[in-house]
Amino acid sequence: MIGKKIPVVTFKLRVRDDSISGPNPFRWEDKSSTEIFQNKNVLLFSLPGAFTPTCSTYQLPEFEDSYEKFKASGIDEIYCISVNDAFVMNSWGKAQNLIHVKLIPDGNGEFTRQMGMLVDKNNLGFGQRSWRYAALIKNGIVAQWFEEPGIEDNHGPDPYGVSSPSHILKELGNAS
Questions:
Q1: pLDDT score at 159
Q2: 138 three-state secondary structure
Q3: pLDDT tens-digit profile of 45-58?
Q4: pLDDT at 125
Q5: Which of the residues 9, 50, 55, 86 is marked catalytic?
Q6: Which of 162, 127, 141, 124 is nearest to 40 (CA)?
């Protein structure tokens, strides 16, 4: 994966628009992966699903809490991507009180598939989801890769360690 150019896809986002009145002041916005990753050092992490136990209890909150440490390590932005739609990702971000980590809905799994990380989780009733991983992406190119071991369809345990913020920060420190 290191040295791989990230896939060019269009993400379908729901963004707040104060010009829209009523209880749902959001509009659709297309954003390309090029816009997100170009001319920046981005830490991207992916997980099986919003509102799931490990993702909601540990992974996303730990990245949010570690934001300043990542900034000090030269990271411009942190993005979390999941094979969920924009409505789910926005609700999850609100429930998690996110300030720093930005969420990317990969509703059709296109980015995840092109990254080679799309797996079946039919054993849990999830359909296709992302395997848990993280990547340091510099100007659209994967510079460092952190993939949980044992990638396979319908995997039993859900490993979490290699893609954790503490492990990544340790590796970033060793890379300098």
A1: 94
A2: strand
A3: 999 999 999 999 99
A4: 87
A5: 55
A6: 141
Residues 6+ apart with CB under 8 A from 102: 77, 78, 79, 80
* Amino acid at the residue 76: D
Cα–Cα distance list, 33 to 13, 79, 149, 153, 174 (Å): 12, 11, 26, 26, 28
Examine the residue annotation and report whether 55 is marked as an active-site residue of this protein. Answer: yes
Buried b or exposed e, range 69-104, using 16+ CB within 10 angstroms: ebeebebebbbbbbbbbbebbbebbeebebeebbbb
Cβ burial of 136 (10 Å; 0-12, 13-18, 19+) is: buried
Cβ partners under 8 Å of residue 24, min gap 6: none
Q: 21 is written with which tokens?
A: 């009145």
14-63, pLDDT tens digit by residue?
A: 999 999 999 889 999 999 999 999 999 999 999 999 999 999 999 999 99
Distance CA 160, CA 58 (A): 9
